[in-house]
Design goal:
- Two copies of one chain form a homodimer.
- Chain A has 327 residues and is α/β, with parallel strands linked by helices.
- Chain A is 57% helix and 12% strand.
- Chain A is globular.
Chain lengths: 327, 327
C-alpha cells in the first residue's frame, strides 16, 4: 500500500458509504496497522454524532441476540446501526472470526446494519484502542446507533463500557451467581438492567433482586439517574421496544442534565490514555526484546540485581532519550 | 510516616517473620502508597525463591476451597504457603474485604499460611502491579509456594496468570458454557486442568471434554508440555494430592527444559511494563485533569478539532518535557 493515496482513497470510499472500505479500515486498526491512522485522522471530524449503546453481561445471557433485536428495532424506526462485538478472549482461538460467521446469517438482509467482531490481536490495551477506532469509523460512516457488545465482564470490558453513552447489563432468570457477579463488579456501570429470557421461570424474582440491588447499592457513576430494569425475551423479540424506550429515556436524561458532554469528555480522555499506554508499551516491549540495554535490564531483574521500580526508572530514561532523539 | 526509617523498619520486621509487617506492606502497595517502594526495593533481592501457582476459572467452580486444600497439602509436606486472591471486580463494592472475612474462618489455625485478597484500588493496571508486589513480598517473607487465585477469566486475570510458574484452570461437571468459555479464552494458558466437584454427575464427561480439547486445541505457550487433567472434590479434599503431584510434574518439566528461567524473564518484563504503564497513565491522567494544556487537549478532542492520535503525540511531547524536567 502506498500510504497517503490509499488513506485518502479509503477516506473517500468510506464517506461515500462503501461498506468494504469500512470493513477494511476496521481490519487495519484491529491488526494494529499504523497506516490506518492517516485515514482515521481525516475521518475524525466526521465522527461524534452516533449514540453509543454498551451491552454487557456474562456468556449465555443472550446478549448477541438482544443486540440484534435492538438493531432491528432501530431499523424499524429508520435509523442505521453498527454492532461491534468485543471479545478479549479471542487472541488465542480466533473467537472473533467464529463470531463473525455466526452473525453473518442474521445480517445478510440489511445493508444498513454493519456488524463486526473485534478480538485482541496485539498488546494488552490494543483492543481498547481498536474498539475506539472502530466506533469512530462507524460513527464517521454515518451509523446513528453503535451497539458495543462485550463477551464478559472483566476489567477490559468494563473499560469499554465506559465509552458508551448508555450501558446495558444483561442477566437472566435463575442466574444466582450471575447476579452476585453483577453485584460485585458492574452494578455501578449499568444505566439499564435487562432480565433477558424473561419467559423463563424466575424472571420476576430476578427483576425484584435487581431492583433491590439498585435501591441498596452504591451509584457512583452518574448522580441523578436511577437505573431502569426491563424484561426481554430476545428469542421472540418481546420487550425490545421497551428496552429501546428505556435507552431513549436515558439519552434524554444525559442531554438535559449536561452529562452527555461530560461522558464524551471522559471517552476522549480514555481514548487518549489508551493510545498513549499502547504506544509506551510497544516501545518498551521492543526495547526489552531487542535492545542491548533492554535485555541487560531483564537479566539484572532476573538475577535480582535491580528491582522492578528502579528498572522502570531506567526504562523511562532510556525511552525518553530514544523518543526525544526521534523528534 | 517518616519514609526511610519506616521503610527499613518494615524491612527488618518482615525478614524477621512479622506477619503484620507483611500485611501492612501489602496494604500499602494495594493502595498505591509510593512510600512502600523503598521497602520493596530492599526486599527484592530476598525474593525469587518461591514457586508461584496460578488458579483461575469462573465463579462457582470452587477455586477458593481448592486453593485452601492445596495449601493444606503443602503444609502437610512442611512447606509454607501464601495465597493471594486477585479480584478485579472489587473497585466498586469492596469485594476484597468480603473475601478476606470469608477466608478468615479457615486460616485462624495456621500461622504459616498467609492469605490476602487484592482488589483494584486505583488506575487500571494498578492491580497487576500490586499483585506482583504482593508476590514479591510473600516471596521475600519466605513462603515456599504462593498460590495466586483470580475470580474471573478476563484479560487482567489472564495477565496475572502469566506470572505463575504453573497455571491451573478449574472447571466443574455440567458446566457446558463454562467449558466453552475456557475454550474461547484460557485453554492456552492452562498447564493443568482440574475438574472440581468431581463427585457430581458428569465428571467423566467433563474430563473427556477437556482431554479432547487439549488434543485438538492450539498449544502455543510452552512447547513440549501436554496439559494434565485431574479431578478433585475440594469440599472433602479428594484428589488434592494428585493435583499437588501434577504441579510438581510441571515444575520438574520447567526445570529440566530450561523454561523456568524463560518464565521468570517473562514475568520480569511484564512487571516492568506494568509499572511503566501505570506511571505513564497516572502522569497523563493528572495532566488531563489538572493542567491547562491537558484540559485544552480534551476540549479540542471533544470539539473534534484534533484526533486522538495527534492528541497522543501532543501528550507524549508534553509528558517528556515534564518528566525530563524533573530528572
Amino acid at each position: 500500500m502506498s500510504g497517503s493515496e490509499s488513506a485518502s482513497d479509503l477516506y473517500e470510499r468510506l464517506l461515500a458509504g462503501d461498506r468494504r472500505a469500512a470493513a477494511r479500515l476496521i481490519s487495519m486498526v484491529e491488526s494494529g496497522d499504523i497506516t490506518a491512522r492517516a485515514t482515521l485522522k481525516m475521518l475524525y471530524e466526521h465522527a461524534g454524532r452516533a449514540y453509543i449503546v454498551g451491552l454487557t453481561g456474562s456468556p449465555g445471557s443472550g446478549k448477541s441476540t438482544l443486540a440484534f433485536r435492538l438493531a432491528g428495532e432501530y431499523r424499524r424506526n429508520g435509523h442505521t446501526v453498527g454492532i461491534i462485538c468485543v471479545d478479549p478472549t479471542s487472541p488465542f482461538t480466533g473467537g472473533a472470526l467464529l463470531g463473525d460467521r455466526v452473525r453473518m446469517q442474521d445480517i445478510a438482509a440489511d445493508p444498513e446494519v454493519f456488524i463486526r467482531s473485534m478480538g485482541t490481536r496485539g498488546a494488552v490495551g490494543g483492543l481498547s484502542v481498536a474498539t475506539n477506532d472502530a466506533i469512530d469509523i462507524l460513527d464517521a460512516f454515518g451509523k446513528d446507533y453503535i451497539i458495543v457488545e462485550t463477551v464478559g465482564t472483566g476489567q477490559v470490558e468494563i473499560e469499554v463500557m465506559k465509552y458508551a453513552h448508555t450501558c446495558i447489563v444483561v442477566t437472566m432468570p435463575g442466574a444466582g451467581d450471575e447476579i452476585q457477579a453483577i453485584k460485585a463488579g458492574i452494578l455501578e456501570i449499568g444505566d439499564i438492567f435487562v432480565v433477558n429470557k424473561a419467559d423463563r421461570d424466575g424472571a420476576d424474582t430476578a427483576i425484584a433482586d435487581l431492583e433491590m440491588m439498585i435501591e441498596t447499592g452504591p451509584r457512583t457513576v452518574q448522580a441523578g439517574w436511577k437505573p431502569l430494569v426491563t424484561a426481554t425475551a430476545a428469542t421472540n423479540g418481546a420487550g425490545t421496544e421497551d428496552l429501546a424506550g428505556a435507552i431513549e429515556r436515558h439519552a434524554e436524561f444525559l442531554r438535559t442534565s449536561g452529562l452527555l458532554e461530560e461522558k464524551t469528555e471522559q471517552r476522549m480522555k480514555a481514548e487518549l490514555l489508551d493510545i498513549l499506554n499502547l504506544r509506551v508499551s510497544l516501545a518498551a516491549e521492543k526495547a526489552l526484546e531487542e535492545d542491548v540495554a533492554g535485555k541487560e535490564l531483564v537479566r539484572m531483574m532476573t538475577a535480582r540485581q535491580i528491582d522492578p521500580y528502579s528498572a522502570a526508572d531506567v526504562m523511562v530514561a532510556y525511552l525518553l532519550k530514544r523518543v526525544g532523539g526521534e523528534e
